[in-house]
Amino acid sequence: MATKTKYYVLRDKAVPEVLIKVVNAKRLIDSGKVSSVQEATEMVGISRSSFYKYKDEINLYHENEKGKTVNMVIQLDDEPGLLSMVLKTIADFKANVLTIHQSIPVHGIATLTVSIDVFKETGDVDALVDAIETVSGIHYAKILSRE
After folding, report:
1. Closest by alpha carbon to 63, among 127, 107, 109, 4?
2. Is this structure's pTM higher than 0.70?
3. What is the residue range of 18's domain?
4. Is 7 part of any domain?
5. What is the predicted pLDDT for the residue at 61?
6. Could you give the 3-state DSSP secondary structure of residue 41?
């Protein structure tokens, strides 16, 4: 009798170090920075057997979401051009804006909800969020959901 596969979403601090190293080794291989599994495992400090044991069992959450919709909420100051800077940052990551809604500013602060389509070219969605948060006038940016 086959058992049903279960999936869990964990914070990175709850993931055993060996699994994080497996993900890092997979990134090295996928990026072409190394030419072999042996080289990747040596760089991250795990055995090849650990890599092969877990390589199909762990992926970064966002890696499974490429080509999917990401819904974000961004709180920002009500300043001319700030929304344009946020949209430029999204475009710089090669993501496509699907929907956008900005609330009426209250006390000079507006809330923006945006749905974006992310692709392989977008890369790390968390890096996109970090880039948005570095824009002057942004209070925070958070991912609400990934579909």
Report:
1. 127
2. no
3. 12-59
4. no
5. 66
6. helix
